[in-house]
Amino acid sequence: ALQALETYGPPVAVIAGNGHARTDWGVPAVIAEAAPGVTTHSIGFVESETDMPFDEIRIVPPTEREDPCKSLTSD
Hints:
A two-stranded parallel ribbon has the order 1-2. It has helices at about 1-10, 20, 25-35, and strands spanning about 45, 55-60. With about 80 residues, it is an alpha+beta fold. About 25% of the residues lie in helices and about 10% in strands. The chain is elongated and about 50 Å long. It is built from three helices and two strands.
């Protein structure tokens, strides 16, 4: 993202999963450490209210999905 910003200028959009979009330890936190003068805005797309730190949240309808941990079991 910082290389794109340097090469092309603003705005730069990073599309990532919610864990990577968190402002406490995701991409915004890494950018704040690496380039303190760069402004970020994190939007979390979530299925219900959350205490995950984002600058903004958007509630979206839940989607059916398999258990992501299913492949990690011996069953």
